[in-house]
Amino acid sequence: MNAAIDNHWYPVAMITGIDAPRETLLLGKKITLGREDGTCWVLDASGAELPTVERFGHLWTSPGQPNRDLFTIPEADNPGRRLVDVGSVKVKCSPLRAVENFLDIAHFPFVHTDILGAEPHTEVDRYDVKIREEVDEVWATKVKFYQPQAAKSAAGGITTEYMYRVPAPTCSVLYKTCPPRPGEWDIITLFVQPLTDEWCEVWPWMALYDDDSTMSEMVSFQQLIFMQDRSILENQIPRKLPLDPGMEVPTQADMTSVAYRRWLKKIGYTYGAQLVAA
Amino acid sequence: MDWVAVALTEDVPPGVVIPSRIEDTDLAIWCTPSGRYHAWSDRCPHRGMRLSHGFVRGETLACIYHGWQYNETGSCDYIPAHPKLTPPDTICVPTYTCAEEGGVIWVSLTDTDRPLPALGGRTPVRSLPVNMSAADLAAHFGATTFTTIAVVSDVDVLLAVQPCTGGTCMVHALAAAEADRSSVSHWLENLRATLEGVPA
């Protein structure tokens, strides 16, 4: 039992995907989940009921006693947005590596070539990063990057603006320029379920302004992106995320990742982390 | 440490990078467009990505994750996210002693004065993974070292044995240029079946 790890909310299923009861892993321990009369439930390995929240199309639970409500994304409720359950991808890496990759833009030209980035547009300008103490979240703002195909809805290359938010250790919310409505933000999230400290299930979810694409086109676009990320995430050494400086070398473009690692260390979130340089 | 065969040159043409290993040390083996071979630690110091998934551009090896380019000494030359920055000398990949001889790429994990193995003019036939440790395989032939093992029976073969993880090894077989390649290949498969105790 480690309160710094257990007292968080974790995504464990897409609500529309729950039919018969099924088992999964959370923080290395078996849990069972299901739905009865429209209400979801989760049991731990001993059969004890765990708390649940149904939000953002997903079922959330906690093995501990969360001292605060699951975070909210008020902008996602704006009328006209389409809510997209992307599904899930299991990845053989630390849940923290998956989140850190989501916070990274410098890899776009090399991993998501001709979609989220393309050479020679590789430069990452300085942006703002801070740990917002009052809400205990990591935020990166004024992140700008040239993207050939920023979203399914984009008609051509644009310089996209990003804001990243880390409201929980294994979750991130991205606010990103909406191609058909440049004054608005599209919302793309990454909800990560830590199956173990070196294996995770990633549940992306989106709230987009896109009146033209079909649901399956938007899902396919995001799944392609994530399959490209998986080819990286399963080949990083070590699988766990090093929190101590020295084992990996950041640059200015990695300010979000540096703040994320620092914040994890500050709140004592060590699950999936490597603390001593091997 | 002695030389270890880590790949055949025909499997690493100019402009190509492949993964290899010596016991638990993961290696990225690559060949520059002008034909020089290098054996490096298979890990980019930036975010730990395997460099064997990277790409050769000019005379550099680039990481597939963020495109960081490393020159032939292993030093980082270029960081695409910061094109105007000269990367500090401290950003570098550990490199190992590497040489090509007789169509085989040889690596020593430590500095060595030893000459490269004498191959007697033999050339590579093929590589084959064997589920047996390099030491046990050498012992099978009464050899005390596995760098190269000469076998003279119904065929004349030189085996260069590469120790891998989990008590397995890769056997690179070399034979005289005039030898019948398919019979050498067949002999090697039979050898593996015998060593692993399974029917050929």
Describe it.
The complex is a heterodimer of chains A (278) and B (200). With 278 residues, chain A is an alpha+beta fold. Chain A has two domains: 1-70, N-terminal domain of TfIIb (Single Sheet); 75-274, Naphthalene 1,2-dioxygenase Alpha Subunit, Chain A, domain 1 (Alpha-Beta Complex), CATH 3.90.380.10. Chain A contains five helices and 17 strands. Chain A has helices at 3-6, 95-102, 108-111, 215-233, 255-266, and strands spanning 10-14, 22-26, 29-36, 39-43, 49-50, 52-55, 58-61, 82-85, 89-91, 128-132, 137-147, 158-168, 171-178, 181-196, 199-208, 241-242, 273-274. Chain A is globular, with a radius of gyration of 18 Å. With 200 residues, chain B is mainly β. In chain B, the strands form three sheets. In chain B, strands 1-10-9-4-3-2 form a six-stranded antiparallel beta sheet, with no helix packed on it. In chain B, strands 5-6-7-8 form a four-stranded antiparallel beta sheet, with no helix packed on it. The mean pLDDT of chain B is 95. The chains are: A alpha+beta (278), B mainly beta (200). The A-B interface holds A 106-107, 109-111, 119, 122-124, 231-232, 235-238, 242, 247-253 and B 26, 42-43, 45-50, 53, 64-67, 79-83, 85, 90-91.
Name the descriptors.
heterodimer, A: 278 residues, alpha+beta, N-terminal domain of TfIIb, Naphthalene 1,2-dioxygenase Alpha Subunit, Chain A, domain 1, 2 domains, eight-stranded antiparallel beta sheet, four-stranded antiparallel beta sheet, 17 strands, 38% strand, globular, B: 200 residues, mainly beta, Rieske Iron-sulfur Protein, six-stranded antiparallel beta sheet, 14 strands, 12% helix
